[in-house]
Specification:
This protein is α/β, with parallel strands linked by helices and 187 residues long. 60% of the residues lie in helices and 12% in strands. Strands 2-3-1-4-5 form a 5-stranded parallel sheet, with helices on both faces. Helix 3 packs parallel to helix 7 (119-141). The longest helix is centred in the last third of the chain and has 25 residues, at 162-186.
Amino acid sequence: MAGPVITVGGPHGTGKSTYAKALAAALGLRYVCAGELFREIARERKMSLEALSKVAANDPAIDKMIDERSQAEAKKGSVVIDAQLGAWVVKSLAQVKVLITAPDEVRFRRIANRDGISVAVAKKETLARELIQKIRYKKYYGIDVDDLSIYDLRVDTTLHPIEKTKPILIESVRGLLERKKLSRHQT
């Protein structure tokens, strides 16, 4: 039997990729990043992420391609899927759905540092991109990204330093997997 499927989602700049990679490594699972595929498409088309988001708002084929890849990877099992909509896209296949959060000011600063841009530009671009995505997700999927009830675990990455947060997250996910395994055996 294939191993667990774990989704890690959250807004841009929260650290979801960092934590998803840490989970995959600690649990011996594969790591798949839907956001990286979106970035690859933007690079191939020589577009900014914001510009591709605008195109995707009118072209569901982009999201569909990313979703199909995420679903195919989930069906293989033994994977951590790093994707904003991963919890919804592979909903029934995922044993644990994690939401990574951080206050907006922290997110914008992290994005600015990562992308080598000013915080003001990071804020402007991120808010514009997220608004487009929010509308797109509602239009194509009927998903309200403000409804967090789908998640099993929520982690604010600003509560502790990263090296303290990683083991807390890993042990929390291990605990959730064990409880879900026990409840399946009891039914």
